[in-house]
Amino acid sequence: MQDTEILSWDNTKSLNDITLVEMGNNDVILSCSIGKIVLWFGRQATSDDVSTVIQSVAKIDTSVGHEKEVICNYDEISGCSDQGCIIISYARHRGGGYRVIFTIPFCSSQACIYFINSIINELTDSDVKKTLHWNGSIVKIMLLFDELKKILNLKLLNVEYKEGTDA
After folding, report:
1. Within a 10 A sphere around the Cβ of 118, how many other Cβ atoms?
2. I want to staple 27 with a disulfide (CB 3.0 to 4.6 A). Which of 45, 59, 82, 165 is the partner?
3. CA 89 → CA 69, 100, 157, distances in Å?
4. Which residue from 28, 81, 82 is spatially nearest to 57, judged by alpha carbons?
5. In what order do the strands lie in the sheet with 36-41?
């Protein structure tokens, strides 16, 4: 494995002691732990930034998923699955329409494209924060950091360790 900034952060600590790794730049921040990745895109993030992050995460681990909720008409529910998403549940919404919960699986390139486009659309109004669920590991986090460091010039912002092993 290549030496990365994570390893040089505190080489007196074991990789197994790392609980959180934050990486980013002015436009993108990823907070990665074993069970989830929290993404933050600032309003100045470009569509290429969003696409690169999502595609890099999918490349490192196809088991990643994002749960999304929308309110839509009944006729639009099947559109979610047409985009490669997996419908978890739907029910009538008291404000009208249907509340649909679905998962965006990163193993589906079509679902990833849908997710990328939805983030880009949200960025026109405000910063965007999304939570991804995965079966991550410190090795996968290091691979993700190495990938994004080259493409987006991400920097290591913070590494947190298990309690009692703080640097």
Report:
1. 18
2. 45
3. 10, 6, 37
4. 28
5. 86-92, 98-105, 65-72, 128-133, 36-41, 28-32, 18-24, 155-161
130/67 Cα distance (integer angstroms):
9
Q: What is the pTM of this model?
A: 0.88
C-alpha–C-alpha distance, residues 144 and 59, integer Å: 9
Q: Which two tokens stand for residue 127?
A: 């910063």
The answer to whether 116 touches 54, Cβ cutoff 8 Å, is yes
Given 3-state DSSP classes, what are the helix, strand and coil percentages for the chain, each rounded to the nearest 5?
35, 30, 30
Closest CA to 72 of 91, 99, 104: 99
Burial class (CB in 10 A: 0-12, 13-18, 19+), 3: exposed
Tens of pLDDT along 110-154?
Answer: 999 999 999 999 999 999 999 999 999 999 999 999 999 999 999
